[in-house]
Write a structure and sequence with these properties.
This protein is an alpha+beta fold. It contains 3 helices and 5 strands. The protein has a 5-stranded antiparallel β-sheet with strand order 2-1-5-4-3, with helices on both faces. A hairpin with a 2-residue loop joins strand 3 and strand 4. It starts with a helix and ends with a helix.
């Protein structure tokens, strides 16, 4: 029997195979970790909670400005890129990409993956 947990783990595993992605996680909108593939040393629960806080803050800010909800948030540093996007009303998807990773393919795959997650949650 395939459970939601197994399906989410398959989704995370498939996404991690996209070129340039180093880590990924699926979390609830309130920051609870649902599934992840993160390197050692990253506390998944903290990562999920802070990602949800970041996306929620961006959504509140753009809503207050009457600019609609953001499709995604991209944070770039010299050591990598963090991309966070909603995956339906109950979940969010977060990936960490290498600093030199091209965003085109990653963003396309994130959109597809978010749609899959929305079906199950």
């Amino acid at each position: 029997m395939t459970t939601t947990t197994n399906i989410l783990q398959e989704i995370v595993t498939d996404l991690k195979n996209v070129g340039g992605i180093e880590a990924c996680a699926i979390a609830s909108r309130d920051g609870l970790l649902m599934s992840s593939d993160l390197p050692d040393g990253i506390m998944g629960e903290t990562f999920a909670a802070m990602s949800a806080t970041m996306l929620g803050a961006a959504e509140t800010a753009t809503s207050e400005l009457n600019k609609g909800l953001p499709g995604r948030i991209i944070v770039e540093s010299e050591n990598g890129k963090l991309i966070c996007m909603g995956a339906g009303p109950k979940a969010l998807l977060v990936v960490i990409a290498k600093p030199d990773a091209g965003l085109g393919l990653i963003l396309v795959e994130l959109e597809k993956t978010a749609a899959k997650i929305k079906e199950f949650i």
